[in-house]
Amino acid sequence: MIKTISWASGTVVMIDQRALPHEERYITCRKYQEVITAINDMIIRGAPAVGIAAAMGIALGVLNSPGERMKEDFYRICDAFSQTRPTAVNLFWAIDRMKSRSEKEFMSTPHMKADAVKKALTEEALRILEEDIRANRRMGAHGKHLIKDGDTILTHCNAGALATGGYGTALGVIRAAHTEGKKIHVLVDETRPLLQGARLTAWEMKNEGIPATLITDSMAGSFMKRGMVNLVIVGADRIAANGDVANKIGTYSLAVLAGENGIPFYVAAPISTIDCYAKTGDETPIEERKAEEVLEFHGTKIAPEGFNAYNPAFDVTPKQYITAIITEKGIITAPFGKGIKDLA
Ligand code: MRU
After folding, report:
1. What phi, psi does 300 have (nearest 5°)?
2. Which ligand 1 atom lies nearest to the CA of residue 273?
3. Tell me, what CATH number does 89's domain have?
């Protein structure tokens, strides 16, 4: 299994997802600012992976901070990470985890040595990474029972090892079913405009020998209507307390189409993706990315000069279109509000 992100002797190493699938190259971040750039430039992406990168970036920033202004630096660095990508709540969850750990360390030992705080924060970032991989494996163990031998599964964007600490959420469930010997086939939505499906999910499926075929986003409805899809599984960037799910743009259309065609629509996400402060999905901030991502294809302009484009990176799927949410603590079905309250 590839290592999406790791901590190596005081540096953060990550696979450069912009170069995939053609080139497997790694970048080494020596300063927290480089981790911020990596998140903004989509070198690392996917809700849980962004959270892990932020936690490691914060640990890195504190490691390089002189002891006397470490506390001040810590909060400034946390703030800088919170300005990167607004939709994935895992980012804010990870920053809060780092804050709680730091407050606990400072409070329990007010005169604590800088080295001990640095060690504690590095430890916390690594713990977040390990917990994420464990959660994904548990999601796989719960979710695999929803997949039958012979099923064709449609997925959108990349909710795999590359989007997490490892193994994946939606792709983790698919992996677990495949490992168990179920004969499955995956339809991979290409996921315009940044093609996370075509570039990243296809790459992960190929590497593991999971039978899969690429389709353009606009083909999904027709495939569903023709009886060629048994279930849909996607990841999530933020789940509101009522069960509404924010995920990659295009997810909402898929969910409605699945509902129309009587196809189960599953969301796989760790508890860290649940935002209990958001009552409904309407409270989710949707990231608007630059128009060039839509106007260009691999750096080549595809629209007339001077033309504009909208580029919201995420949409919200109302809870009524969701069959179940697969988490590491179990599977939540309607009414989601109660299920989420019980588990989160
Ligand atoms: O813009 P991205 O590539 O960060 O968007 C990623 C997604 O939308 C994923 O589906 C989501 O983060 C879940 S990843 C386990």
Report:
1. -105, 130
2. 13
3. 1.20.120.420
